[in-house]
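Worked problem 6 (solution included).
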Amino acid sequence: MEPKTVEALRILSRVLSQEGRRFVLIGATVPQILLDSREGSGGRETKDIDAVAAVNSWDDFNRLRERLEQEGFRQGRAAHEFLRDDDVNIDLIPFGPALIEQDHLSWPNGGAIMNICGLEEALECARDEKIAVDLTLPVVTIPGLVLTKAIAYMDRPEERARDLIDILYCFEHYETAPGESRRFDHAGTQVNDKLLTYEEAGAFLLGIEVAALAKPKSLAIVQRFHGTIIDEFARPVSQILTEERRFVDSDGRRSVLYRLFQVFGTGLNKTAGI
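Solution. The predicted structure is:
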């Protein structure tokens, strides 16, 4: 992780901790922390940081914004966007009962409306992870990340193809550290008349663990997400191929992607008792 990103996280953590706020890192930074460094999965460097922080009211969030601005951040185009040094972008999502109506966060003054399902689970499953020397932060687990990504995608599927890429990356790299993988425990399991391979077992594990983590409303959304992938020509599969710049499916990638989502759904329904 680049020094400027680490410094921005250090300042954010100090401000939130001094105010006694619960918070958790979510988003594309998480695979970089948990998979690339731990599992040896390769580079996914990003300067965009997503975090959730507990607040009591919109006035409370405005006070937090002022505090961050005193520490060198500046307001971005959106109310939740904080910039530092022209290189680091932090999306800080406020979370608290007073801000939520019917599972949605409505920004004041006609701002965006956001589904907050999954954020409570993200806060609950957060684990302290070492980010850099003398910097340990609460980070959502990979199952928690997949949960929030699936819900975010369902909120605005036409705009959120990158969430699918993050989910796929987790499918492909979760539990691949040498000597530590639980994938072998499930390889050979029968899934839709085919034996589960080692390469597919990460998606199966994540299905099981997402279902175990998710609260009922969140689980229902993830199940709807999986239900949209009815065949290898479903929109999420096509969106992934577009993001991967695979305009000709010469290597059977569609079938591979569809199979991974099938396997994920089987794990999801196994835990949910369906």
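Discussion: Residues 123 and 271 are 21 Å apart (CA to CA).
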